[in-house]
Amino acid sequence: MSQASTQGHLPPRWASRFLEWYCDPYLLEDLQGDLLEIFYRTTSDKGPRRASWQYTWLVLRSFRWSALRKNSKLKNNIIMNSGQHFKVAVRVLWRDKFNTMLNTLGLTIGIVCFVLMGLYVTQEVTFDHFHTKKDRIYRAWLLEDYGEGKIFFNSNTPVRFENLFEENFPEFEEVVQYHLRNFPVSRNQQDVISEPVAVISPEFFEVFDFDLIHGNVTEPLSGRYDLIISRAYAEKYFGDEDPIGKTLQLQFDEDVTPFTITAVLDDIPQSSSIKFDLAISNVLNRELMGERALTAWMMVGPETYVLMKDQTSIETVNAKSQDVVMSYLGEEMNRDEYNIGFQPLTDIHLNPEIPAGIAPVSNPVYVYVLGIIGLLVLFIACINYTTLSIGQSIKRSREVGMRKILGAAKRTLIFQYLSESVLVALVSMLVGGLLAVLLIPTFNRLTGTELVYVFEMWHLAIFFLIALCIGTLAGIYPAIILTSTKALAIMRSGSNSRGKHWVRKVMVTFQFVITVLLISSALIMQKQIRFLQDKDLGFEYQAFVSVPLFSSSESGRTTERIASARANGALLKPKIEAHPQVSSITMASHAFGTPGWAALSFTDDKGIFRTFSMLAVDAEYLSAFDIGIVEGRDFEKGSGLDERQSILLNETAVDYFGFENPIGKKLPGDNFGEHRIIGVVKDFHFSSLHQEIAPLVITQNVLPMFLGISDAEVKDSMIPKLLFKFTGSQLSQVQEILTEAWESTFPNRNLEYTFLDENVARQYENEARLNKLIGVATVISILIAAIGLLGLTVLVVNSREKEIGIRKVIGASPFQIFHLLARTFSWQLILGVVLSIPLTVWLMQQWLEDFAYRVGIGVDMFALSTFISFFVALVVIGFQAWKAAVVNPVKSLRTE
Amino acid sequence: MKRESIGELEELVLLTVGALINEAYAVAILDELHQQANRLIDVTAVHSVLRRLEKKGLVSSEMKGATQERGGRRKRYFLLTQAGRQVLEESMAVRMELYQKLPKLTFSVS
């Protein structure tokens, strides 16, 4: 062994110190010698890093709990004495009930907030993590990039990917597809309900850990018409009966097909991106999607999931996927135009860079923001404890001095005081944790989250550990302050441990900064959301009802299906229209409040790639929604020419296509069918206010438009909806009117309807939820800050009791006394407000950038939040200060 | 006095202590076990076995010989005691006796 190569390296210091701490001195020397010898040997053989690991491991391996008991250094020490410490702590806490109550209350509230936010963040972050093979499961995406902005990025993939992957990538152990589609479902042909039904590969359960609990659990989809049902749905359709072997009717187009239930699936957990209650086999794809879909490269539908074989890497697949694509599409496409990629299963829920597939994706920023808020609120609760305890230290310095004189070591004293804060934290954790779990339903209702908490025994350990951390964090500073004073100094001069006042002030200020920050942010978000909800969108939508129509055949060309649905609408329309409380009835391919309107693209005569949204309506549309005409005219009712070929543009589209004088012109593409622009409508916000208004073409006949385009992206179904305004006052009547009209027209179909104003509001659901969550945190932080302030005021009043008495004797008025006391905290509060402003502005600007239309941050909200914080502070301080100010000075001066 | 019974690893370590004569300290025992018996055990296991053997009175120990490579720390050298030797001999006798009874293998394997 060469000395030179090893001398520079030493084993980790903490490991050595730990060893020295626990090890019996009799055994220490040779054990440590041996470990060192091995360490040096490994260093020269395998490098210092490896040696350090090995050393640490051996130190930990050598540790025996029994060694601790025999260890003489530990006798009369922390662990042995913890029982004693806690007993004393209980007595001390009991003695000062008011402070203990404030401390516990503050911490409890903080913990409730922390636990709730923590559970929410945990649920979001561990989404889809319950699959045992999660690290090997990937979802495919498809990115088509034909240059000039012609980019199509989807997590829904072509049907043929399943075979494509199986044939070309031996790295995949399994390839499965999952699609969710709505079909009318009934048990006995009478109560037909449209239900989402998963269409999955028969090997689906080899990849994912969804538990089949009953029936044929090994090959549940071996038959063509086999059906898997969830436990909840089994109950819904069959009650207590055994569902296995029973049938449910599913309706594809006009054909009703009986499916046999072969297996029952345990209900899928909330934290799963893949969620379904009914599942059928994708061998039916030909019937469901049509022949063309099976081999098409551009038609996307199902999500494709792959399970990697052990010891293979997705990189090898990525490296050759383009070659595989070229071997099929080489003649039609250039390299890198058609790209296939893979995303880990656990990444799906929180990765906004890859488009959402079937399940919506959460915004990771919101999750992190909430996590940080939870931590901050907990932190200010800890600060509360700290500042209050430092305040208390004045009272307790004599106690410390006495203990020191009697021979207590500093370390013992610190542990004594820590045991107090840990005890408070444990109690708070117990109460707060229970409270948080009990509050989950309220929390969900209030904020619109879907939090589910399932308790497991090991969580107790986590909660215990968190409580220990909180207790230590909150108590360590006062404990050090309290015990570091010189015993003699304390005993001689009574109380002078006020030296570290600035730390307390900084902490109080910091607490104010966070509280004011939260108040201002909540207010600004509130303002933006109110702005979104109240903004004039350019059309009427209050009290409008949307009824999705259906096409009599699910297959066939889009134009045929639209025509069929429109014919159905025409049957329904007169029956609804006849009702006196219904007005403004019309039909349109898309309804407000639903994203994903048809976006059509073509290359115009100058070679520029153009994309516009299209809305197919009837002649009454504009008047029904009160959308203004800027130029030209509206569709004329009953005019065959208008029905065939007239189109309207919105103002944005006129600018976009560069028309000077659009009336009578055509769209600048060669292949469009016969059409003519007859008018320009005022811009209206047909998509959510996150986006700018897009160019829009309104037409009655979609065919001429379809002829001229090269690409279409339609997320919302183009099958027409019947829209009407309900002018009555009882919303429940809508149900009656609709049911009556619908059942007499389409007895076998399930009626669905929504209210447009609800749909429009739902577009801002995420923002509204975040606002509510922050609102909850704000209220909690105000409470905590108020409690802290209350405690501090009481302390200050108590410590200045004599001073106040003397001042009063000299002739100070109660108001002057009040002023004196209120001043103590006012500059900290002002500083808090001032410091919070730039932080808030910065944070809120980030948030507001998500919106194309937004409010200015403005001074008003800051004025309001400043007012709120001062008001709360004044109320809290005021009461105590006033009480002190009006007390008879004789009382405070007589003692002693 | 109750007769001490020892386990397989204990017996192996005891033998090694005996075999190394005056050089038996933990790391040397570890190496010897690795070379002779091809057993890879970590040093903490050797330590606890040695401790047990010492408690049972089968080995005795003594601290000496500080070297630079151990950060100047002395080694604990182990020696086989009389009792230890006896235990080893008894266990060997038992083994030999049983081994003798094993039917002799012939080279009739074709």
TrEMBL record, chain B:
Coiled coil: none annotated. SUPFAM superfamilies: Winged helix' DNA-binding domain. Residues 22-90 form the Transcription regulator PadR N-terminal domain. It holds the Pfam family PadR. Gene3D superfamilies: Winged helix-like DNA-binding domain superfamily/Winged helix DNA-binding domain (1.10.10.10). This is PadR family transcriptional regulator. It comes from Marinoscillum luteum.
